[in-house]
Specification:
It is a single chain. The protein has helices at 10-19, 24-30, 47-60, 80-86, 92-101, 137-155, 175-181, 198-201, 210-226, 230-243, 251-258, 262-271, 276-293, 299-305, 311-322, 326-332; strands at residues 4-6, 44-46, 112-117, 122-127, 163-165, 185-186, 192-197. The chain is α+β, with helices and mostly antiparallel strands. It folds into two domains: 65-224, no CATH class; 230-332, Homeodomain-like (Arc Repressor Mutant, subunit A, Orthogonal Bundle), CATH 1.10.10. It has a five-stranded mixed beta sheet with strand order 3-4-7-5-6. A two-stranded antiparallel sheet has the order 1-2. Helix 7 links the parallel strand 5 and strand 6 (185-186). Helix 10 crosses helix 13. The protein is elongated and about 75 Å long. The relative contact order is 0.10.
Length: 333
């Protein structure tokens, strides 16, 4: 299954790198993430690439507690319509429930679950990860720091959890965790979670706005429904682009990456008014135009990167797509 996440969220990581005196541009380039996508509404990154980005950050940043700085590096706009909806919730309970319910707006994987124990008077949010190997210490810390920061902004006064549990070992800078959460913090735990008392999570918040949250919920539902149409097309084009240099991008290969059989994929594309061949040619044409405008790139190299065995074959295809030869297009550009 090809899983993605909203690209704009990685602006948080960009700022985190800057806070730790790292130039973000080469870090994103190292893991082959196009930084410009973060500024385009609705664009998404591969979760595999995001996992690589977190690992690269961990290698470059020497502070083992750097994930906590996510609390000061986010803006609601980074999280799309969900970012604003969270900040107008009626209570902390509803904030966390809305985060779980609409998490698909920002990511294709589950993010958390809630456990309530009325006898113990506790309400616990448990962070869920798509797989433990890709979820680094910094990434886990950043997720919990961001969640707690959102809750603290909503609560608008001092907020003290009953307990915070993290799955990674206790680092030398553990004092930063106690200072940030202002509560007991346990390390090497089986689950990553944060616990509050029921009276805290059910307090009516002065920042709540039912009209705005209703509007936000509607916008998020609309976006989630669109994920099965236009966004799926974007996923397919991205898979095609990643495999073009191999010279053999097939519908069977793309279907396998998406976790479906070939016939199901072809039928889905037909229902959307397109086909695999159309998407393959569109992707090749879009990338070709970008490459050709770079006058440092040899046209033969461009042809090979797009999966063509010969420059002449690529030139004929490009002229069929655009009405111009690659050389004519380059001169015009």
């Amino acid at each position: 299954m090809y899983l993605t996440k909203l690209a704009s969220i990685q602006l948080v990581l960009w700022r985190m790198l800057e806070k730790h005196n790292q130039d973000p541009a080469p870090v994103f380039k190292q893991v082959k993430l196009d930084a410009s996508l973060m500024h385009r509404p609705g664009e998404r990154y591969s979760l595999i690439k995001i996992a690589e980005l977190w690992k690269e950050m961990g290698r470059r940043i020497k502070d083992p507690c750097f994930g906590l700085t996510a609390a000061t590096c986010w803006h609601p706009s980074n999280f799309g319509s969900m970012g604003y909806a969270l900040l107008t919730s009626h209570s902390l309970r509803i904030t966390l429930e809305r985060l779980i319910r609409f998490h698909r707006v920002i990511s294709d994987v589950d993010f958390g679950e809630i456990r309530e124990d009325k006898k113990k008077n506790t309400f616990t949010f448990i962070l869920k990860t798509e797989n433990n190997d890709s979820y680094t210490r910094g990434r886990e810390d950043a997720a919990m720091a961001w969640i707690f920061s959102v809750l603290r902004v909503n609560y608008q006064k001092e907020l003290f959890p009953e307990l915070v549990c993290l799955t990674h070992p206790k680092p030398p800078c553990s004092g930063k965790y106690y200072e940030f959460f202002q509560s007991p913090v346990l390390f090497n735990e089986a689950e990553c979670k944060i616990t509050f008392t029921l009276d805290i999570v059910d307090t009516v918040l002065s920042s709540s706005n039912e009209e705005m949250t209703a509007f936000g919920d509607q916008a998020m539902n609309t976006y989630i429904n669109s994920l099965d149409t236009g966004t799926q097309i974007s996923h397919i084009k991205e898979i095609i682009a990643e495999n073009l240099p191999s010279g053999n991008v097939t519908v069977e290969q793309v279907a396998g990456t998406l976790g479906m059989n070939t016939r199901t994929l072809q039928r889905a594309l037909q229902e959307k008014g397109t086909s695999f061949i159309t998407l393959l040619n569109d992707t090749r044409m879009d990338i070709a135009k970008q490459f050709i405008q770079d006058k440092q790139m040899d046209l033969t190299e461009v042809a090979f990167l797009l999966g063509f065995a010969e420059l002449s074959t690529f030139s004929r295809s490009f002229k069929r797509w655009t009405g111009q030869s690659p050389l004519q297009y380059r001169k015009a550009a």
